Structures are given as structure tokens and as C-alpha cells.
């Protein structure tokens, strides 16, 4: 599997943001276009291996290497360290294109590339260590605070077990969030004794973590999202970060309000997946398939045509909604005003709505396909499983609408 261009060809932006394509913005746009072209060029070969990904329950290393070679894992890495540092809309376009190919490919790319927005929360010395071998570093982990970090001389003694560590088998580094304790008792967080306990993130080289083989699931089977664990591991202060309230050691719009971006990453994934499932249904109908006891082939049935048109309307709405929110977030990020509760709620609303709509579209496509969709060989059932699994992620569960609703009601009280 050979990409059309190499990462050397894509990386036209130097440490100061200039490059061979003219202005920094032009060079950035050129890098994004090259990346999209390579992704589309790889699409047939990657899609043909979907069953292999599921059987292996992970992304094969040659696929990871190919994605690395075209620059997928440096999308969010800073230009100062050799990364592409694409704009938020550009990066989401790439994630949607990867997800349209296959769910496990898109999810693996999303997690592996987006980890770059978390790493600037670390102290500068550790950040430089992570990127000393280049910008294609992959970090896996989870932001659920399921570890315990006992205060110790020079750092913390960390013990914990974290689920859903997508891509952990090919990661260079891993991270997890912990409740900080002293003498076994949780320390109070910023809100004091009445609020949640103090939370800190820990980042360590992948070799320091244990991987537990637990990824036997309904969907996104090829992502290798196993449990990871640390047992009484001394984590130095330099490998600890404050999330979500830490100050980034790296300048740049992408790194200043990380929680505000997460739901849009999921929105890009689900947008690509929904576009893919609709295309699969149209392709099936185009074969002339006629279902048992149906009076006409699918493509000639007015009932099928009407339902297809309805689903297509839902899917067609996803990308404009995603990109409108992405462009709004990006403008605020560039202006330094993204860290705002209302903007956070907007991003979450957008992400949850996109994911929910994409799941509904996948269900409808699966139903419209009839008996052909039930086989493991059908991409329709695989995409339906993948989307339902993705929708279970805490970031885009429908309960997250609560924050937006509460904000509206609080504003109504003021007026």
C-alpha cells in the first residue's frame, strides 16, 4: 500500500510558518489538499481490508505506517515541531474523509492525531522530549479519571486501569487522568471540599503501561481499544498535567481550549461515516437488487426512493452544520476567545446532534437494504455497528445536551 505522496512532500511549512506555497495560509491549505488527495487515493485499498481489521481487533502496523507516512498523525502537531498544524476546519475535513472509508480507520486516525492537542498541557521539557524524534508521535489513552495518583517525592505513585485506549498497541506514549491523593485520601479540587477532587493527567512512554486484552465488542472492532493499566508506577512531576484547566506550553489556537474541540472531532467522524453508509446503500440499489416479494427493484420503488431522499437530506445537512461550527470555533480560537461556556455548549450540541443524526441515518440505510444487510460481508451492518458504538462515547451522549439547555434557562432568568 503506497501513498501518492510522502510526508516529506506534504511538510512544506517550516518552523516559522512559511513554505514553498507562498504565504503561511497558502502553504497550510496546500498541505491540507495534499493530505486529502492521499487519503482519497488510499480509500479503495483500505476499504477492501475492513474485514481484516475487524478480525485482528486492531489496526495493522502497515496501515498505521501508511497513515503516518502521508501525515495523518501530524495534522494537529505544531509547525514549530514539524507538524502540519492545520486549521480546525481543514483537519475535520481530513478526519471525515478517513471515516468515510472505514469506521476503524477513521477512529484510529481521530484518536492518534487529536492526541497532539492534549500534549501541550505538559511542561515544556517533557513536550520537547515527546517530539524530539519528529511530529508523528501517537499518544493513546483516556480522559476518564480512573486512576489514583498518590503524592510522592518528585512526583506521584500512580495505580489505575483505564478502558477504551484506542490504538494503544501502536502508541508511542499513553495518558490517563487520576484523582490525586495524599495518605490515601483525595485532595480537594479548585472548588474546595464541596467540589470534585483534584484531577491530574499523567503521560508516560507506552512501554511503561500494561495492555489488557479486553476489546471484544459490537462495533469499531478494528480500533484495538483495550484497557491500559499502571501499577504503583512512579510518575515524575514533569509527566503530569492539569486538565482541563492547565496552561498550554505551546502557542497556537489549537492548544488553548482543548475540551471545546472534542465533540467536533466526533462530529467529523460521524459525518464521514454517515456519508459512507448512504453511498453504500445507493451502490447496493444500483445493482438492480429486488427484495423478496417486492413489486420492483429497489431503485424503481417509489417507497424506497422517498425513504432514500429523506435519509439523504439528513446526511447532506451534517457537513454544513459541522463546518459552520468548526469555522466559528476557529475564529474564536484565533482571537483567543474560545474558552467560553456558551461556545463549549454550542460545540457539544453540534457534536451530539451530528452523531445522533448519523446513527439514525445508518439505521435507516440498514433497514432499507433488507436481508442483504445482515451478513458480515455487508458494509451497511458494519457501519451501523460502528456508529452505534461511537455514539456511546461520553463526549457525545445525548445527556450532554443538558449543559446547553441549562445555559439557555439561566440566560432567560437574567433577562
What is the structural class?
Answer: alpha+beta
Count the domains.
3
Low-confidence stretches: 4-21
Question: Would you identify the CATH architecture of the largest domain?
Answer: Up-down Bundle
Q: What is the mean predicted local confidence, pLDDT?
A: 93
CATH class of the largest domain: Mainly Alpha
Identify the overall geometry. Answer: globular
Compressed to H and E, one letter per element, the order equals HHHHHHHEEEEEEEEEEHHHHH
Radius of gyration: 22 Å
Helix content: 40-55%
The CATH homologous superfamily of the largest domain corresponds to Butyryl-CoA Dehydrogenase, subunit A, domain 3
Count of helical stretches: 12
Would you write up a description of this structure?
The protein is α+β, with helices and mostly antiparallel strands. The protein has 3 domains: 115 residues, Acyl-CoA dehydrogenase/oxidase, N-terminal domain (Butyryl-Coa Dehydrogenase, subunit A, domain 1), CATH 1.10.540; 105 residues, Beta Barrel (Butyryl-CoA Dehydrogenase, subunit A, domain 2); 159 residues, Butyryl-CoA Dehydrogenase, subunit A, domain 3, CATH 1.20.140.10. The protein is built from 12 helices and 10 strands. Strands 1, 2, 3, 4, 7, 8, 9 and 10 form an 8-stranded mixed beta sheet that branches. β1 and β2 form a beta hairpin. The longest helix is centred in the last third of the chain and has 34 residues. 48% of the residues are buried. About 4% of the residues have low confidence. This is Alkylation response protein AidB-like acyl-CoA dehydrogenase. Keywords: Oxidoreductase.
